[in-house]
Amino acid sequence: MPPRVILSVARCAKQAAQEAERRRLDDTRALGGADANTSATVSLSPVSSTESLVTIPEVSDADRPRTPTNGDDSFGSLLHRIAGLTPGSFKSLSTLFTKRQADAAVEETGETKKRRLLDTSQEVEVAPGSMVRYSYNHPELLRLVDNQIQPPLVCFTNRSLKEITEKSNALPRKKLASKVSVIDVTHFGDDLKLEESEWRQGAENFLGFCSIIGTVAYVERFRQHFDWFLDIPDFSDKFAVVRATEAELRTEYASQQTVFNPAHYHSRFQAKHIELKMEEMDGKEQRREAKFNSLFSRPSAVTSHPPAVGTSRQHAGPSRSGGGGRFQAGNRGDPSAATCLICARKGHQIAACSDGAFPDGKPVFAESRDGSLRPRGRDEALCVMWNVNGDPRGKCAHGGRLRHICSFCGSNEHHALAWRCRANPN
User: Fold this and answer.
1) Is residue 117 a part of any domain in this protein?
2) Which residues are registered as beta bridge partners of 375?
3) Residue 185 lies in a domain
4) Where is the composition biased (Polar residues) (predicted)?
């Protein structure tokens, strides 16, 4: 039976039961009044009339216990039970029926909703043998712009446009502060890691995207932007600088729109070129420093029997294992050609040095301890690379963590192999 019908029947049954109860009470009261009149005229009781003054409290019909009737009519029994429901029970029952009714309505809507038939109105002409070109006019890219997010160039490579077109529902997303969900552009990579061919694809497709979201003047502004970089001589050789400068200026324009100025572009390009060169040199310097400092943990095999403190190491022979690095150019990694930064003798490395004095008998200033070159009795570490070549640029990759003082005398005026405080053993 539908829920609405059940509710309607329940209400009618309750009203009918209440009406029947009122009629029964009226009949009972009427019958009680007739019995009282009869007893007033004819008294059958031998008891004195004064005893009738005893008051017997009346019990309302609602408080009297009732014996339930076992009717054969199941529908009538159902109505009787429904009539006895409390208002709270009716409210719960109504809520339950309402929920079920809503669910049923949703299911009916889903089943009866008309489906849009697919058609061929969106077909486009394609030349024989040509590849499908994925459009940059995609709702996901437009949604980024609508929420003040400029899509990076990497989103407009052919590979990225293909993924956006074919798998937009499977792309990772992020929710903005405005509760709007957009695609996570970091999924496609970094503009600074694009290959030259990918960068050219992205630039061309980005200009097409600008024609959708901007005016003719807006498109022309970015055409000037990309043309300036494409006109650079030796574009491929300088592509790393082109890529970094272009991304920086494009981001700058997104935050504050500036008029195209070739002189500004030129100065930024030159600054970025110098910056990348310095980073490249720092990387090489860091690798050199790591190579030098790695010598601390590799004792040379040339001294199986180290001499006593204060004695010379002249009998130490070269190692056939070639297990050591070099401190000076031209020794080709031969430990016999190495010069120790502790005792100023040739033929062994720092980690293998156990001399406590220089050849002239003066005590040494430094020692090899805890994998580092350190002044004796002090915890600070000395820079090996600086003591070898002096670091003419005045800058090491360790950022000041190691001291730039001579490992022979402790002076900060010269490095060890400048041979200002010791005699060169060569």
Assistant:
1) no
2) 366
3) yes
4) 36-53
- Domains identified in the chain, total number: 3
- Please report whether residue 129 resides in a domain: no
- Amino acid sitting at position 138: H
Contact between 336 and 346 under an 8 Å Cβ cutoff? The reply is yes
Model pLDDT for residues 340-375, shown as the tens digit of each residue: 889 998 888 788 888 889 989 999 999 988 888 899
Q: 328: closest CA among 211, 424, 409?
A: 424
Q: 414: which 2 tokens?
A: 């010269």
Q: Where are the beta strands (DSSP E) in 190-246?
A: none
**Are 375 and 268 contacting, i.e. CB atoms less than 8 angstroms apart?**
no
Residue 7 half-sphere exposure toward CB, CA atoms < 13 A: 15
Q: Are residues 342 and 408 in the same domain?
A: yes
User: In this structure, which long-range contacts are made by residues 371-376, counting pairs with CB atoms below 8 Å and at least 24 apart in sequence?
Assistant: 371/296, 371/297, 372/293, 372/296, 373/296, 373/341, 373/342, 373/407, 375/405, 375/410
Q: Distance from first CA to last CA of the chain, Å, rounded?
A: 111
pLDDT in tens, 115-174: 888 889 888 787 787 666 688 899 999 999 999 999 999 999 999 999 999 998 999 999
What letter would DSSP give residue 332? T
**363 with 395, same domain?**
yes
**Structural domain span for residue 364:** 298-311+326-426
Q: Are residues 239 and 168 in the same domain?
A: yes
Q: What are phi and psi of 276, to 5 degrees?
A: -70, -35
